[in-house]
Specification:
- The complex is a heterodimer of chains A (191) and B (224).
- Chain A is mostly helical and 191 residues long.
- Chain A has helices at 4-17, 34-50, 67-75, 85-90, 92-101, 110-114, 116-122, 133-137, 152-165, 177-190; strands spanning 2-3, 25-26, 105-109, 142-147, 169-173.
- Chain A has a three-stranded parallel sheet.
- In chain A, helix 2 runs parallel beside helix 3.
- The longest helix of chain A is centred in the first third of the chain and has 17 residues, at 34-50.
- Chain A is globular.
- Chain B is 59% helix and 11% strand.
- In chain B, strands 2-1-3-4-5 form a five-stranded parallel sheet, with helices on both faces.
- The chains are: A mainly alpha (191), B alpha/beta (224).
- The structure holds cobalamin (B12).
Chain lengths: 191, 224
């Protein structure tokens, strides 16, 4: 059961590694209403367990503030370690160092770049109320793109987003190897 | 627009605050005053109830952040007009509150809404902004002789700053003089108890109720 923000990578990795798993994704937009992550994940977990499948969650805590841990404990399933996908992709120490160096850091991933219009601009109402930009982003000082599989088109999109912010952009190549490692651990647990 | 009666004006002011129509809220506030309504009436019979309803709709999931934000901004605009008048009419401040988002965190929409409601309720609010270091909270509490200090946090990684701030207050000998309130999306009553805060509230309206209750308790205690 994967967060929509990670599901694409999870499917690719599962196929490449030949894991006998079905990847179901839940909408990434639930992040904006994190209590719904736990509710939706619980429904999906219950449904899968009822049909006799073993389940693992390709989710970090994701702002459920312990909600997913609680769910994992109740149904004896496991999730990815970390607070959010940034931790999974880049490693928690690296993310912590990034925020310590500049608390006004806004993090981007390949997924966030691709869905920036929908997941950020539209969700925050910036498409209809562009005047709210300073209220949302006035305190940010830089953008960090944790790049998984950068393409020229994504790099261009990153530049466009940085121009919208008017902030410097740092690109950190994190790839998917940490995600793959953590997924392998989860999959070992259920196979 | 063009309300014919005070009742109609208050209704329109409520509706336009709820939908975050800033310019109309300003016009109606001015029109209300011109009609002879006092600032308290505009505040307590339209602006504050509207923002309470905004909070309730957010809670129910009918509103999301942008709706909260524009409604809050509309009310803040009206408060700009009303603030000097409230001061003039001698409306006494209930207490002084120092507020800020903790160090390392730059989420401030929730905190700003809490500030607006506190101000509307008659508190003198000193907003220290975002990423406020413990020493800055301590200095502001001392300088303004604050009755309450409020810490706001939104990230799992910044919540521990509540404890750091409380320790800093204790170290400077101010902990017993000030009521500590905490809040923000990840915060719970349980967590507030663990860090040793005096109060927690889940939203802006509840924060005001809680603050008044804590102040009252302290003042009664001080006289006992
Ligand atoms: C809007 C938002 C943003 C905006 C913030 C704009 C701003 N100026 O504040 C933007 C898009 C910029 C943003 C950025 C980030 N965000 Co953000 N954000 C949110 C979101 C969707 C809503 C928060 C909000 O404003 N709610 C609306 C207000 C009105 O409600 P509220 O905050 O709960 O406030 C009420 C109460 O809590 C209470 N209250 C608040 N403060 C206080 C104080 C006191 C004393 C009291 C008594 C009461 C009280 O009263 C308020 C009014 O009713 C949440 C998810 C969520 N739904 O909670 C994520 C969330 C908080 N963000 C998150 C993250 C990860 C980030 C980023 C790191 C993401 C990134 N890509 O870089 C950055 C943070 C960088 C940094 N250094 O701080 C995570 C945190 C996860 C975690 N475990 O820590 C969340 C939970 C999303 C998620 N599911 O992953 N974010």
């Amino acid at each position: 059961m994967a967060c929509g923000a990670l599901a694409g990578h999870v499917r690719d990795i599962a196929a490449r590694r030949g894991w006998p798993v079905a990847v179901r994704s839940l909408p990434a937009l639930l992040h904006n209403r994190p209590q719904k992550i736990t509710e939706s994940a619980e429904r999906a977990v219950v449904c899968a367990l009822r049909s006799g499948r073993a389940v693992a969650l390709a989710y970090a805590d994701c702002g459920s503030y312990g909600g997913l841990d609680d769910l994992c404990a109740r149904y004896r399933v496991r999730r990815l370690p970390g607070l959010h996908c940034y931790d999974v992709l880049a490693g928690p120490e690296r993310v912590a160092a990034m925020f310590a160096a500049e608390p006004g850091t806004y993090v981007l991933t390949d997924f966030l770049l691709r869905s920036f219009g929908r997941a950020v601009l539209a969700e925050l109402g910036l498409d209809t109320h562009p005047e709210l930009w300073p209220d949302y982003f006035g305190h940010y000082r830089r953008l960090v793109w944790l790049a998984q599989q950068p393409t020229p088109a994504l790099a261009e999109q990153a530049e466009r987003v940085a121009a919208m912010f008017g902030l410097p952009l740092t690109r950190v190549e994190v790839g998917v190897s940490r995600l793959e490692q953590e997924l392998a651990r989860l999959v070992e647990g259920i196979l | 627009m063009n309300p014919r009666s005070a009742e109609e004006l208050l209704g329109q002011l409520y509706d336009n605050t709820l939908t975050g129509n800033g310019p109309v809220v300003l016009d109606l506030t001015n029109a209300g005053l011109a009609m002879g309504l006092d600032p308290e009436t505009l505040l307590y019979q339209a602006l504050i109830p509207a923002l309470e309803e905004v909070g309730a709709r957010f809670e129910r999931g009918d509103f999301f952040v942008p709706e909260m934000l524009i409604a809050g901004k509309a009310m803040a605009g009206a408060l700009e007009i009303l603030r000097p008048l409230l001061a003039e009419t001698g409306a006494t401040t209930i207490g002084t509150i120092v507020m800020g988002t903790v160090k390392g965190d730059v989420h401030d929409i929730g905190k700003n809404l809490v500030n607006i409601m506190f101000e509307g309720a008659g508190f003198h609010v000193i907003d220290l902004g975002v990423q406020v270091a413990p020493e800055k909270f301590v200095d502001a509490v001392r300088e303004h002789q604050a009755d309450i200090v409020g810490f706001s946090a939104f990230l799992t990684t910044t919540m521990p700053m509540f404890k750091a701030n409380i320790n800093a207050l204790a170290k400077s000998g101010l902990r017993d003089q000030v009521i500590v309130m905490v809040g923000g999306a990840p915060v719970t009553q349980e967590y507030a108890d663990v860090v040793g805060a005096d109060g927690y509230a889940a939203d802006a309206s509840a924060a005001v109720v809680k603050a008044k209750e804590l102040l009252q308790r302290r003042r009664v205690g001080a006289h006992a």
